[in-house]
Amino acid sequence: MWIDEADGFAEIFKGYLPYYLLVALPIFIIMSPVNPVTASHEFSVYRMQQYDLHTVPHGCRSASFNLEGRSLTSWSTSRHCVVARVEDISIEQFMEIRSKAGALLLVLPKNDTVLTPEDKEHIQLLEMAMIQNEVNAPVYFAQWTPDFEDILRDLQHSFITDDKSKTALEAMFNSVSSNGYQIVVSASTPQKLDSKPVTLHGKLVGRSGSAQTIVIAAHYDSSGVVPELSQGADSNASGAVAVLELARIFSRLYSTPAVRGGPTLLFVLTSAGHSLNYFAAKKWLEEQLDSADASLLQDVSFVMCLDSISSSATLTMHVSKPPKPGGAAHSIKSRLGVPINHKKINLADETLAWQHERFSIRRMTAFTVSALQSHKEPSRGSLLDTPSELSASNLIKNIGVLARALASHVYNLTDEVNDEDAMLYDELLGVDEVAIKHWYKYLSSQPRAPQIITTLPPNAGVTGALERTLSRYMEITVSTHTVDKREPEYTLYGPTRAQLYVYSVKPAVFDLILTLAIVAYLTVVYFAIQFFPRFYEEYARLVTGKAKVQ
């Protein structure tokens, strides 16, 4: 009985089994528990800074790529996209990747507050090196996620180089068994952005008959290697917040004729700051000084620029020319009780050191008050320039110091004050801590790179919010500046963000081995089908003792 059934089974092998295999195999593949969706990921990534300053290119010049992902230790050619943590890559490795690799994807720390001071310094120096060079390969940054952590781990352990394998067979097995990732970014070709930086200024008029003007200025944009992630809490959200709070304090003093100060106070907020050589400040000064009506800056006592004043509770006065004893700048220095850092203006440098140098070039007494000891501090344009409770406390303290020093100079107060003066200090000069923290948090949570804020209308975004706030205390004038199209001082490029797709794939050698295995399998199946009847006859003769009757 069972031999007859086997005969029918043999007939199937003779005629129809190959066709059944063609139908059954796709069904088995579809019924497979492997979910293809888990083999792909989608992330929002942020493109590295790209701009030209005086026709000198900075940052990456490309946007799209479709390459195989590799780790820092396993990449080798321009067909690879290097994927690494930003704290793991050295400046030397970046320089090599910049010249040889196809693309670079850097994953930001999960929590920058747990980084050691050495790690922070390393990241900041890396950022400086990146922004100073032109990079032809696309460079993107991504926020940390668990999926990215898994991808990084796979890339670090999947590709084992030949020199780490004991035998050639082990090397081939490692290559076949490893998992890879194809990384794709489809973004538009970099295009020039229409940048129109804005300057906000308003004044509190002093007593009649006094023509002296004190300028309190700050740039409110930020600079960094990644425009979309450039928060700039210390540089220079802190300076912008200080201008807002000083405007609020002195608007109360100047609102009452009895206590109005003698000099006129002029509050100025500019964009296109440090990274673009203080372009907006330059254009604003040209408009004010080179026009027929230059009354706004006719008699400037001094210009006090505020930059990065939240990183420390200790301030420094940066000057291009030491203040003369008895002068207004020396008076402020004495009342602040801060040291002086003297640095001459070097016009041969690509960018000016501080914003006050723009005013000093126009022969005004100007200085910058900052918590930084040098303009070369890498923290001025770092991704790690984020707010904290300590920095907010430092900002509140420093604004209070600035307000008291400025009021002491405006009203010519001495160290010995009577009860009325003491009340003035305590009540009218008290800072609004809630408002300072609110604005510090708000500005620090907004990307304020020139690519972001100078391409928006003046009444939108951060610029619009600052203008509306300052207008509570004084009449505000909004000045929009344009870049010379024939000889542009700078050029900004987009896009600044993109979507990144990561697909889990096998290496090319796996496809070769799989193809050979399939060919071998089909060859065995073919010969098994062809020779099964003869095999069956021999088996039947062996079992029954006689040949199968046809």
UniProtKB/TrEMBL annotation:
Gene3D superfamilies: Zn peptidases (3.40.630.10). This is BOS complex subunit NCLN. Its main location: endoplasmic reticulum. Residues 201-272 form the Peptidase M28 domain. CDD domains: M28_nicalin_like. Belongs to the nicastrin family. GO terms for biological process: regulation of signal transduction. It holds the Pfam family Peptidase_M28. It is a single-pass membrane protein. It is found in: Endoplasmic reticulum membrane. It comes from Galleria mellonella. GO terms for cellular component: endoplasmic reticulum membrane. The chain crosses the membrane at residues 17-38, 508-529. Signal peptide: none annotated. The gene is LOC113521691. InterPro entries: Nicalin, Peptidase_M28. Keywords: Endoplasmic reticulum, Glycoprotein, Membrane, Signal, Transmembrane, Transmembrane helix.
